[in-house]
Write a structure and sequence with these properties.
Aldehyde Dehydrogenase, Chain A, domain 2; alpha/beta; 2 domains; Aldehyde Dehydrogenase, Chain A, domain 1; 16 helices
């Protein structure tokens, strides 16, 4: 687990699985604790339907204990008043611990939510390590400001931690999404209560133990597993939580805004759904590269990606050529055993989500879209929840699969004549998380990057960016930003301090 060489075969991953200690208790005030739970949550392996463990589902009593511990730790200054350089050392230590335990964490993530363990190891773990390290290094470079005044006055603009932050994260990238919330919130001095999705809790619970080992004080970082409709709602309604951050569905995000308004008007930052358009023009782009990128943009992580390029908009003159190549790539990106290092896709997260994806596919057929490949559950004898890459042609804006987020490996293809029509189709959505444009005309690229209503626009690529680039959406894709210094700023309050030196 802590050696230099990670497992490279299914047999080695299975051997590692036999050594795992899977934590099923919440982490409250510095330790794992058994709590009174009205019900538990079954952790099911999406690849075969087997039960891995059962996790305590926290309710109001556990939340009250966690909030009290968070408030006491914040008010005491044990973390919030710690010198920035000391917070930096401890978060860097946590980053190193995540790296050291990357095999264990990657396997937990794959077993928990069905993604290929190759991606968990090579992508998710590296991104989590990078996130904690980046925000740790930024701690002592995140400056306050001084207003430009005459010599008789001094105006200070301070950025102070908000207080108790509740973070509710999704199931598709459990550790990465947790890192995007937890790292900047801790870096700026807050106390954090993390609620992982009830569909993928195992790496969040393990992260809590690593944070303790790294020297994060008791009460500063806590993890409460539980159901969204009970624990998540209680967090949003709690009057002693100062800030709520959330990544998940738009419908849930709207509810959280309502609950915050009904309670203490806590700050709420949301990263919600997406239905991202991927535009390919006929002006000399490399259509082989564009087609491969388009396939990866929707089928990576089983399509369970908020920025999945789920709407492929092709200029008519190149539509058939691009679509032919996309279908070829789809055939090579089939679902497979998540523990096989050659599997491009794994299993969908659970049976309920499988049924949801299949219902969307059926709606596409019923509404007149042309099914070109996929569209059915596969490997049913495995007991798992697998769907192969699915592509629809002749999709129109009136169709459900054009407008609604499916969160599965389902691609909707339609065509356009010119730039104006492409822009209308792309912006014809209540979402605005991301968009991609393939063009050899940089003037066109610049025009569209300004006119597309999306938080991120990729030019001749998809899903590029690193910790220096803010991430978030327009419209009903949410507000606020993860990553970059903007993420740290949202976990602070701005305070103006005015000194008057006149007689």
């Amino acid at each position: 687990m802590n050696g230099n060489a990670s497992p490279s075969t299914k047999a080695q991953w299975l051997a590692l699985k036999e050594t795992l200690h899977i934590e099923n208790r919440p982490f409250i005030n510095g330790c794992y604790q058994s709590v009174e739970a009205l019900e538990s949550i079954k952790v099911v392996n999406p690849a075969d339907g087997s039960c891995i463990t059962e996790v305590f589902a926290c309710g109001q009593a556990a939340l009250e204990r966690a909030v009290l511990a968070a408030r006491e730790s914040f008010d005491s200054g044990v973390w919030s008043s710690l010198p920035p350089v000391e917070r930096k050392k401890r978060l860097l230590a946590l980053s190193r611990l995540i790296y050291r335990h990357r095999d264990e964490l990657a396997l937990l993530e794959s077993l928990d939510m069905g993604k290929p363990v190759r991606d968990s190891l090579n992508l998710d773990m590296n991104r989590a390590v990078e996130c904690f390290a980046w925000h740790a290094e930024a701690i002592d470079k995140f400056y306050d400001q001084m207003a430009p005044l005459s010599e008789n006055y001094l105006g200070l603009i301070r950025h102070e931690p908000i207080g108790v932050v509740a973070a509710i994260v999704p199931w598709n990238f459990p550790l990465v999404m947790a890192s995007w919330k937890v790292a900047p919130a801790l870096a700026t001095g807050n106390s954090v209560i993390l609620k992982p999705s009830e569909r993928s809790m195992l790496t969040a619970l393990r992260l809590a133990g690593l944070a303790k080992e790294a020297g994060i004080p008791d009460g500063v970082f806590q993890v409460l597993p539980g159901f969204g409709y009970t624990l998540g709602k209680a967090m949003a309604l709690h009057n002693d939580i100062d800030c709520l951050v959330f990544t998940g569905s738009t419908a849930t995000g709207k509810l959280l805004l309502q609950y915050a308004g009904q309670s203490n008007m806590k700050k709420v930052y949301l990263e919600c759904g997406g239905k991202s358009p991927h535009l390919i023009f006929d002006d000399g782009v490399d259509i082989d590269k564009a087609a491969l990128t388009a396939a990866r943009a929707i089928f990576f992580n089983q399509g369970e990606v908020c920025v999945a390029g789920s709407r492929l908009l092709l200029q008519k003159s190149i539509k058939e050529a691009v679509l032919e190549r996309v279908l070829q790539h789809a055939a090579s990106m089939k679902a497979g055993d998540p523990l096989e290092m050659t599997s491009f896709m794994g299993a969908l997260v659970d049976e309920a989500h499988l049924k949801r994806v299949l219902q969307y596919i059926e709606s596409g057929i019923c509404e007149g879209a042309k099914l070109l490949c996929g569209g059915q559950q596969v490997y049913q004898d495995s007991g798992g929840y697998f769907v192969n890459p699915t592509v629809f042609d002749d999709v129109t804006p009136q169709m459900t699969i054009f407008q609604e987020e499916i969160f599965g490996p389902v691609l909707s293809v339609c065509s356009f004549d010119d730039e104006d029509e492409a822009l209308r189709l792309a912006n014809n959505s209540c979402f605005g998380l991301a968009a991609g444009v393939w063009t050899a005309d940089m003037r066109r690229a610049n025009r569209l990057s300004r006119k597309l209503r999306a938080g991120t626009v990729w030019i001749n690529s998809w899903s590029g960016g690193d910790m220096t680039m803010p991430f978030g959406g327009f419209k009903q894709s949410g507000n606020g930003r993860d990553r970059s210094l903007q993420a740290m700023a949202k976990y602070t309050e701005t305070k103006a301090v005015w000194y008057d030196f006149t007689d």
